[in-house]
């Protein structure tokens, strides 16, 4: 792509949640595209190691630490960065944690997005906003057909409900304050599947739990082995987010200001237990999978699928990696980390190899 055709070359871009797993990968990719990436996030938590391990910080134009629950902090960060594009990833992303702190989940996931959009309203430089929601925004009826963007929102657990509420708030603010005669920015939201990939060290996520257990020579214990999830490598939805932002910046960007699904191919949906067994086989000797027999686990959805037809037809996006590829890339990253390799180079190498076929 030539510099003149690259909308990211020299563009100021704000990524909230850049110290997290997904935000770190996105920040590195945008930097590779030539963007001046600004970050707003809390300090990395004890299990959010990707930011430091992959050396994300030196690639940033600015690195601001602050809480999206504070409107003043968010307004100051957006106005200081004067971004052309904003990607909002700052969130409380874990179902089990939302049971422990439901007030915090709603405060971050709903009001964090509201504060971000209010800050955009006060910042004329912004032309495109991508709010990262979740595949769990839908009212889960445990049915076979995949959820479409027009299906009813809901959520039984606090995390899912907070993400559904976020989508309602975003749609309301978009309709009320962005459009002809209002702020010209185009605001879209995105719903991805269960992302996996190198550098996710979070607690209570399947792949990180497997990596930790296998590395210690211990069995990984599964809470819901029969739960079906739409697994995909982190680079898959990130490519969709970037493509969506480029469309939002285009002359017909207004028609892309809506919600979008980015899920894997149906063949790559798999039960938790089956995925863990595949990871164990890839890891090799010593990797074992067991059922957690304690039985004291809060409710989680059993069946969840996404329909990405809109992204395929409207953006030209479709999955590029199958589940075997995604698992191999993930294992490769963690083996390189365990071997003490330069993980910034490994991560950028995976981005480069994947992006080589990017639209």
Secondary structure: elements and pairs:
Elements: E1 12-16, H1 21-32, E2 36-41, H2 50-53, E3 62-65, H3 71-81, E4 85-88, H4 95-100, H5 102-121, E5 128-132, H6 158-177, E6 186-192, E7 194-196, H7 206-216, E8 220-222, E9 228-233, H8 235-248, E10 259-262, E11 269-271, H9 272-283, E12 289-291, H10 309-315, H11 323-338, H12 343-355
Parallel strand pairs: 1-2, 1-4, 2-3, 4-5, 5-6, 6-10, 7-9, 8-12
Antiparallel strand pairs: 9-11
What this model shows, in words?
It is a single chain. With 359 residues, this protein is an alpha/beta fold. It has a domain at 8-197 and 233-264 and 300-323: 3-Layer(aba) Sandwich (Rossmann fold), CATH 3.40.50.720. Helices cover 41% and strands 15% of the residues. The strands form 3 sheets. It has a 7-stranded parallel sheet, sandwiched between helices. Strands 7-9-11 form a 3-stranded mixed sheet. The termini are close together.
Sheet with most strands: strand arrangement: 3-2-1-4-5-6-10
Count of β-strands: 12
**Helix run count:** 12
Provide the CATH superfamily of the domain at 8-197 and 233-264 and 300-323: NAD(P)-binding Rossmann-like Domain
State the major sheet.
Answer: 7 strands, parallel
Under the CATH scheme, which architecture of the domain at 8-197 and 233-264 and 300-323 would be assigned?
Answer: 3-Layer(aba) Sandwich
Class of secondary structure makeup: alpha/beta
Question: Roughly what fraction of the amino acids lie in strands?
Answer: 5-15%
Low-confidence stretches: none
User: What helical percentage do the residues reach?
Assistant: 40-55%
Output the CATH topology of the domain at 8-197 and 233-264 and 300-323. Rossmann fold
- Mean pLDDT comes to 91
Radius of gyration: 19 Å
The shape, in one word, is globular
Distance between the termini: 10 Å
Oligomer: single chain
Order of helices and strands: EHEHEHEHHEHEEHEEHEEHEHHH
